[in-house]
TrEMBL record:
Helicase ATP-binding domain location: 305-466
Region (Disordered): 1-20
Source organism of the structure: Rubripirellula lacrimiformis
Keyword annotations from UniProtKB, A to Z: ATP-binding, DNA damage, DNA repair, DNA-binding, Helicase, Hydrolase, Nucleotide-binding
Keyword match ATP-binding: yes
The gene coding this protein: recG
Comp. bias intervals (Polar residues): 1-13
CDD domains: DEXHc_RecG (cd17992), RecG_wedge_OBF (cd04488)
Keyword Hydrolase: yes
GO BP terms in the entry: DNA repair
Protein's name according to its UniProt entry: Probable DNA 3'-5' helicase RecG
InterPro entries (UniProt xref): DEAD/DEAH_box_helicase_dom, Helicase_ATP-bd, Helicase_C-like, NA-bd_OB-fold, P-loop_NTPase, RecG/Mfd, RecG_dom3_C, RecG_wedge
Length: 722
């Protein structure tokens, strides 16, 4: 068994005077108490090697000594000079004062110490010192009270200001301790196994520079990189060293993903479903509108994928309302044209029915047969759908998660589409098979994915993106409410209602509940009560939430869609896919409870028609700075991609898609937000390396391959890649 990230050459040196090895436990070092070792363990430091791979989170950069005329009142500075006078002004115990003058060619300052009489013996006239502290102007002279003093030897040259590593700390561990450990063990870095051959380091440095990433020279070997990371000679060297480690971490990940992509394309068989110009024209003619440029581009990408004999694995991302459905419909019709079945899975029954209706309408008077499978079917209806699917009588099947249970069998399944993929969780890959081959797969998501996430969590998937909105959309105005806006807002809402528009009101909770412990959180039940007896009492107000029975929800949605209800008070159950073009106004209460992606999804509900949409966002109680930033971004930006990048910036990747679901290990040194350019280079190089050598069998790369397999083989199911 290999040990952690880099196997050491001298780890198994058995001679008794070999000294500590990389794998030596810190706890066994001389002078290491059990308590101290336990504190280090809290930082993840168990062995010497762990210490070498403890990455500083920042660096201290001591300012170079200033000249006297550069000093500013109250601004920290350091100064090099000679003590020219020193005197004890008072010796009264408890009130002693020692003062001295420090002088250099640029002038003189005074230093003062209270109750540190010993200073008089230290700071004798003629001593060279560096003082640092915060000068205060006193009359015409700057004074440093209790500066930090470094006494220099007469002969000593000015020590170069060195960058000092700042490590992540835990209780009871001091910076200086970690700096000392690093200094003590850095010589052992020679023993680390190099996973990136010199040639690769050189090529990578060149590619990085092409992307304006300022690395100096070739990427350094691992030992040199660690030295520059713990004890940098300069910012440039430190940056280059860090880039090497970041690049390595990302390259290892991207190699694994590239290998995964390659295998899923070559190992599985899918039915080739080519589309001729005639098929294309026939399908396009059935669509109720002409396609936008991005829709057409996505469709062409899908056509190319589906014509191959290995499964398409594509993610179609596009903002709410960008028109993804029609792209999916196209792909499904292409499957049917090629004599195969297609299945479309939606996260809710409401949405599944909506898709079913859309398809039925578009395929009216064609021979295509469409089935619907969802939880509310009777046993007999369900049996029919199962039978029709198995016999091939049903061409297109639409359904909810119910599709995943009960062992449905397809006659000849060619395509599997999953709508609103983010609602199912990233990890949950849909496994539907039929006819002995793997179907093509298209997943759709309205949560735009920042570039870095697309290259990592979805690294084994191809991506199509719709950014362009269909024509004729009204604009959505978003307002972040201030205190006391409620009356004005409800009066605005009444005006829109009187013009015939419909209105959503969204709140985070169903009932005013105990779980919020005294905090005031808006609930739909309370709001429904307040509105229907108060400001909106003259209108038909409906209530919708997830705790209702399915057919009740169904009836309420239908009533709203048909215009029999004016106002729908709802939890986020309306977030997903509902299409009511006449609803143009939305009030979001308790908005601090929602993430940016979710708010944006909600806003998408009122941008469907030709009337301008209006969204007003209210919060309960005080907003934290983070909440405030999020809501301000939401008010300013209507572009889902920009919001996704902002969300990523504010909250980090963890929250965005649920890191736990991604199946990828957390990064140790790379920061996907900051290092996206390095990631792009790593991805491109990994792809080339795998194209050239699919199993990475080049002996020069065996250490790199080992590292990749250790981190990813199990997670990505790479087997042992013989
Ligand atoms: P989403 O991407 O959120 O799933 P939909 O596919 O539901 O969006 O489309 C939103 C609305 O836009 C639908 O009413 C649809 O009919 C309409 N639409 C989609 N594409 C076009 C287009 N190219 N031209 C005009 N309307 C379109
Ligand atoms: Mg949709």
């Amino acid at each position: 068994m290999a040990d952690t990230s880099s196997k050491s050459k001298n780890a198994d040196a058995s001679s008794p005077d070999a000294g500590p090895a990389l794998s030596t436990a810190l706890a066994t070092l001389p002078g290491m108490s059990r308590a101290r070792a336990a504190r280090f363990a809290k930082l993840g430091l168990r062995t010497i090697q762990d210490m070498l791979f403890l990455f500083p989170r920042d660096y201290e950069r001591p300012a170079p000594p200033a000249k006297v005329d550069q000093l500013r009142d109250g601004e920290p500075a350091s100064l090099l000079g000679t003590i020219s006078e020193g005197e004890v002004a008072s010796r009264t115990p408890g009130k002693s004062v020692f003062g001295a003058i420090v002088e250099n060619e640029s002038g003189a300052v005074r230093i003062l110490f209270f109750n540190q009489a010993f200073r008089a013996d230290q700071l004798t006239v003629g001593r060279r010192v560096i003082i640092s502290g915060t000068p205060k102007l006193n009359g015409l002279r700057f004074e440093f009270v209790h500066p930090k003093v470094t006494i220099l030897d007469k002969s000593e040259d000015l020590p170069e200001p060195r960058m000092l590593a700042i490590y992540p700390l835990t209780d009871g561990v001091k910076q200086s301790e970690l700096r000392n450990l690093a200094a003590q063990f850095l010589p052992l870095a020679d023993g680390l196994l190099e996973v990136m051959p010199a040639e690769l380091r050189k090529a990578a440095a060149e590619r990085l520079r092409e992307q304006q990433i300022d690395v100096v020279g070739d990427l350094p070997a691992i030992d040199a990189a660690l030295r520059q990371l713990h004890q940098p000679d300069s910012d440039a060297q430190m940056f280059t060293a860090r880039t090497r480690l970041v690049f390595q971490e990302l390259l290892v990940m991207q190699l694994a993903l590239a290998m995964k992509r390659r295998r899923s394309t070559t190992e599985l068989q899918a039915p080739p479903l080519p589309s001729t110009a005639m098929v294309d024209a026939r399908i396009t003619n059935r669509l109720p509108f002409s396609l936008t440029g991005d829709q057409r581009k996505s469709i062409d990408e899908i056509r190319a994928d589906m014509s191959r004999q290995f499964p398409m694995n594509r993610l179609l991302q596009g903002d709410v309302g960008s028109g993804k459905t029609v792209v999916a419909v196209y792909a499904m019709m292409l499957a049917v044209a090629g004599n195969h079945q297609a299945v479309l899975m939606a996260p809710t029954e409401v949405l599944a029915r909506q898709h079913y209706d859309t398809l039925t309408e578009m395929l009216e008077s064609s021979r295509v047969r469409i089935g619907l499978l969802c939880g509310s079917l009777t046993a007999a209806q369900r049996r029919d759908v199962f039978a029709g699917t198995a016999s091939g009588e049903i061409d297109l099947l639409v359904g909810t998660q119910a599709l995943l249970y009960g062992g449905i069998e397809f006659h000849r399944l060619g395509l599997c589409v999953v709508d609103e993929q983010h609602k199912f969780g990233v990890g949950q890959r849909v496994q539907l098979r039929g006819g002995g081959v793997a179907p093509h797969s298209l997943v759709m998501s309205a949560t735009p994915i920042p570039r870095s996430i697309a290259m990592t969590m979805f690294g084994d998937v191809e991506l199509s993106t719709i950014r362009e909105k269909p024509p004729g959309r009204g604009k959505v105005n978003t307002y972040l409410a201030h205190d006391g806006w409620k009356d004005r807002w409800w009066s605005f809402v009444r005006q829109r209602l009187d013009e015939g528009r419909q209105v959503f009101v969204v709140a985070p909770r169903v009932t005013a509940s105990e779980e919020d412990e005294g905090e005031d959180v808006s609930s739909v039940e309370t709001v429904f009560e307040e509105l229907s007896t108060g400001p909106l009492s003259n209108y038909r107000v409906g209530l919708l939430h997830g705790r209702m029975a399915n057919d009740e929800k169904q009836a309420i949605m239908q009533s709203f869609a048909a215009g029999r209800t004016d106002v729908l008070v709802s939890t986020t159950v309306i977030e997903v896919g509902i299409n009511v073009p006449n609803a143009t106004v939305m009030t979001i209460l308790g908005a601090q409870r929602f993430g940016l992606a979710q708010l944006h999804q909600l806003r998408g509900r009122v941008s469907r028609g030709r009337h301008a949409g209006h969204v007003c966002v209210f919060t309960d109680g005080e907003r934290s700075p983070d909440e405030n930033e999020r809501l301000q971004v939401f008010e300013k930006t209507d572009d889902g991609f920009e919001l996704a990048e902002a969300d990523f910036r504010i909250r980090g990747p963890g929250d965005l898609l649920g890191r736990k679901q991604s199946g990828l290990p957390p990064m140790r040194i790379a920061d996907l937000n900051r290092d996206v350019e390095i990631l792009a280079v790593a991805r491109a190089m990994a792809q080339e390396m795998i194209d050239e050598d699919p199993d990475l069998s080049d002996g020069e790369l065996s250490a790199l391959r080992d590292q990749m397999m250790r981190r990813y083989a199990k997670r990505l199911d790479l087997g042992d890649a013989a």
